[in-house]
Amino acid sequence: MAPSSRGEVGAARAAKAHVRQMVGGDSRVNGIGLTKLERSWAVKVNVTDDTDRPELPDAVDGVPVLVRGTGRITPRAG
């Protein structure tokens, strides 16, 4: 990973932590992660229902925020 890429992913991780604080405990949120968006990183927030999503800005700390409906996520029996 190039030095600038490490800086970008570090900024994205910090933004992810900030987003986690913003939506912590919101039952509509299934998960929060990082994803590549073109040539940069973005925070991805998975929600149960794409039509009922938390209010989030388009970017946090300069990092884009994507909200995507995934449906209800349940553990599979192993």
State the end-to-end CA separation: 35 Å
By DSSP (H or I, 4+ residues per run), the number of helices equals 1
Q: How much helix is in the residues?
A: 25-40%
Q: What share of residues are in beta strands?
A: 25-35%
For the residues shown, what is the average pLDDT? 89
Q: Report the strand count.
A: 4
User: Biggest sheet: strands side by side, in what order?
Assistant: 1-2-4-3
The SSE string, one letter per element, is HEEEE
What structural keywords apply?
4-stranded mixed sheet; 1 helix; alpha+beta; 78 residues; globular; 4 strands
Task: Write a concise synopsis of the structure shown.
This protein is of the alpha+beta class.
Describe this structure in words.
With 78 residues, this protein is of the alpha+beta class. Helices cover 27% and strands 33% of the residues. The chain is built from 1 helix and 4 strands. The chain has one helix spanning 3-23; strands spanning 29-37, 40-47, 59-60, 63-69. Strands 1-2-4-3 form a 4-stranded mixed β-sheet, covered by helices on one side. A hairpin with a 2-residue loop joins strand 1 and strand 2. The longest helix is centred in the N-terminal third of the chain and has 21 residues, at 3-23. The model has no long low-confidence stretch (mean pLDDT 89).
